[in-house]
């Protein structure tokens, strides 16, 4: 079986050797170049993650009981980070290959600049919204305290400095800083890649070990970043741990890692691992097991403490990594080569509906940064709206579906603005 990239129809970096060997041939000016069809898998799964992230961040949302985080070690955050690594290989890999390390790094720095200001803008919008609700509303709760923002409002001067230096990273605003630091590690990885792929793997592995020293018996406390000036709390998403997953996705898309073989045996093993690990990684599944068989529940309960560090979310424990890779492998098998099983065929009503749904989810995945920032602000407003109701099943469903419609509108709006429709067409 010939080696192929896991996303073979996406643009790949040809590398210096390919550039040297390529020679220009005659160009037919009357013949338009064939438009390469974009592989749907990356944006499809990233779009799915965006919907799950919205559900997960709506306060008091009944639907959070059914997101992937309740059924295993990993969740939508892993999908987002892994797919972001793949997307970064596409977006920045060609810059490094074609324009060199310095200009490739300049492009990464610009992206970090964009992510930084997206983080700052998100914080101030949400903080302002919570302040407006507390100032002009008469509610039985304080929305500022619901996000633990009272320190910012009580003593804003040092918190402003901390916010802009990323030494004050409140919970709920921690994904984008993690993403920013991981992006900032990309020039390091592209630099050591000149020594060989072994150097990239070694560097990423050592950084992860520094965040998770328990694996080699060096104790529970590892490399991390401070999140609050007044406490010892660390970043909830430790970028030195999570970079391992980001660069795994990056390596697959760059071709540094070969695609896994298509194997029914591997698929069965991955599915078995996901099923058997569910009671050990999820309180929801454990409750079901405990209710069905108390003796089995008593046997599982001690393992929760034993495996706590191995399934740690902040530092990205090894069990989370293994769980996600098993889930990703099944997703890769289900989608088929080039995502062919995702693409609807035929003209039946079902095929047309699926094609439309696929297009919507893909659009959301394509505009993931805009959608993510919008959804984090939207989730708090939906939570406020639910506070004014009894949170019944129908009302909760309406709230979530309204949120879905709004992030879809955000994705299409962002895509429209990025197309620069005001420019004159040639």
From TrEMBL:
Q: Does the keyword Membrane apply?
A: yes
Is the Nucleotide-binding keyword given for this protein? no
Residues of the region (Disordered) are 1-35
Bilayer-crossing residues are 43-59, 79-97, 109-133, 169-188, 195-215, 235-253, 265-289, 321-343, 364-386, 392-417
Name of one Pfam family that matches: OpgC_C
Q: Which UniProt keywords apply?
A: Membrane, Transmembrane, Transmembrane helix
Signal peptide residue numbers: none
The record's PANTHER family line, in alphabetical order, gives: BLL4819 PROTEIN (PTHR38592:SF3)
Q: What is this protein called?
A: OpgC domain-containing protein
Q: Which organism is it from?
A: Pseudophaeobacter arcticus
Higher taxonomy = Bacteria, Pseudomonadati, Pseudomonadota, Alphaproteobacteria, Rhodobacterales
